[in-house]
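Please fill in the sequence for the structure shown.

STRUCTURE ENCODING:
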């Protein structure tokens, strides 16, 4: 992508919002494309419905949609191998994101990930953060993000020790813990992270 024109500048009316979808774990390319096409159709239909309710609706062609494909389909029991693939893919996503940002012309940039696609994007934002990269993500949406929820925050742990034998409380122990991606998400103006109590896969992988 870094060596090619994505065609955003060549449009008669440049898009005002660009959506990038990054699929998740154990999704072959053909399935990922099928899912992304269905998602794009739903986004367009929803956008059209919203436009009808607005007094000053945005232009119908104000959206652009991209799907970023990566290799994470090594089988349902190869989660660790897929995680490594997600990390290895991050530099490629950096190149892609920089190309989109270069052609965006001020358009709002939304990144939507599913499952392990979150790790692809967050690892890429870590690279951009460390290299003082300038692309800014307006909205980062991590749907069932396959990363620990606490990894996107700086957090404090406070522990109170209670001796069961004498009931005496020991002094508090406080430690500062830096989330793995806490600095990376500073490249996004808004972050949404969804979880589900019914997600048994991620429920086993991350408490």
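FILLED IN BY: designer on duty
SEQUENCE:
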């Amino acid at each position: 992508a870094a060596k090619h024109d994505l065609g955003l500048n060549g449009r008669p009316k440049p898009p005002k919002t660009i959506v990038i979808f990054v699929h998740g774990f154990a999704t072959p390319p053909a399935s990922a494309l099928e899912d992304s096409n269905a998602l794009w159709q739903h986004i367009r239909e929803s956008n059209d419905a919203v436009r009808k309710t607005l007094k000053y609706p945005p232009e119908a062609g104000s959206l652009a949609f991209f799907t970023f494909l990566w290799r994470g389909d090594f089988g349902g029991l190869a989660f660790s191998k897929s995680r490594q693939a997600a990390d290895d893919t991050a530099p490629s996503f950096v190149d892609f994101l920089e190309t989109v940002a270069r052609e965006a012309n001020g358009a709002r940039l939304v990144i939507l990930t599913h499952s392990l696609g979150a790790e692809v994007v967050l690892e890429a934002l870590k690279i951009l953060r460390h290299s003082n990269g300038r692309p800014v993500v307006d909205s980062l949406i991590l749907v069932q993000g396959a990363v620990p929820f606490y990894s996107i925050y700086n957090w404090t742990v406070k522990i109170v020790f209670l001796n069961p034998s004498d009931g005496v409380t020991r002094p508090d122990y406080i430690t500062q813990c830096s989330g793995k991606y806490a600095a990376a998400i500073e490249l996004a103006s808004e972050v949404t992270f969804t979880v589900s109590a019914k997600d048994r896969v991620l429920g086993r992988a991350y408490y």
